[in-house]
């Protein structure tokens, strides 16, 4: 009963807060702070194109903090190690099943670390590849072939994976594309304009989906 009341309060708190995005800080030594210009640029693009009203200065929240419940969407990236304690895994699970959403962007090297940590959060769930006809690829911007390729590393196809809880997509994981690299200032990666626009449009779709589902 206590857990139910806690989740109810958290759910109410989540849905009565402003629609903002926060960066998830995690332990393990990985660079959770990677791509510092990515989220501000994506927010500016989303506020202009899909008319969101997200704060231009994203906050950082720790995985164990109840502050994560202030935000309908969390963003997570990095190249290296990730570690969730039991307390952090439980906190993230409660956040996600009460209406929260997590976008994970593999910044090349995150994959082998994040997969086992997600198992701590949801031992019973498996990452599934998201088909191209899923709504997340068909919001304001259309991606009929699914996840766009932004950066090349291992000559693998770009993929979007997800965890579903009771039919709702709660975690979206972009893999082999470095989607958030495409959101950064142009000077950092020298991506062509069309590549950056493709990345920003997909990012805006993720935000739009997270805020409406």
TrEMBL record:
Q: Which domain of life is it from?
A: Bacteria
Sorted alphabetically, which keywords does the UniProt record give?
Signal
- Pfam family for this entry, one: DUF4159
Outline the extent of the DUF4159 domain: 21-211
Q: Check the record and name the InterPro entries matching this protein.
A: DUF4159
Its signal peptide is 1-18
What is the protein name given in its UniProt record? Answer: DUF4159 domain-containing protein
Q: Which organism is it from?
A: Polaribacter glomeratus
């Amino acid at each position: 009963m206590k857990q139910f009341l806690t989740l109810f309060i958290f759910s109410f708190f989540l849905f009565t807060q402003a629609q903002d995005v926060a960066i998830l800080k995690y332990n393990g030594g990985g660079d959770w702070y990677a791509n510092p210009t990515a989220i501000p640029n994506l927010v500016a693009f989303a506020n202009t194109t899909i008319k969101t009203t997200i704060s231009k200065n994203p906050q950082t929240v720790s995985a164990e903090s109840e502050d994560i419940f202030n935000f309908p969407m969390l963003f997570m990236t990095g190249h290296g190690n990730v570690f969730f304690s039991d307390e952090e895994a439980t906190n993230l699970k409660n956040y996600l099943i009460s209406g929260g959403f997590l976008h994970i962007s593999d910044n090349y090297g995150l994959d082998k670390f994040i997969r086992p940590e997600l198992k701590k959060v949801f031992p019973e769930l498996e990452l599934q590849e998201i088909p191209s006809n899923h709504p997340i690829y068909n919001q304001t911007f259309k991606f009929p072939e699914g996840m766009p390729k932004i950066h090349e590393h291992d000559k693998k196809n770009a993929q979007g994976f997800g965890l579903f809880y009771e039919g709702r997509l709660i975690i979206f994981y972009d893999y082999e594309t470095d989607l958030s690299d495409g959101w950064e200032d142009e000077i950092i990666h020298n991506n062509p304009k069309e590549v950056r626009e493709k990345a920003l449009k997909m990012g805006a779709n993720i935000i739009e989906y997270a805020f409406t589902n």
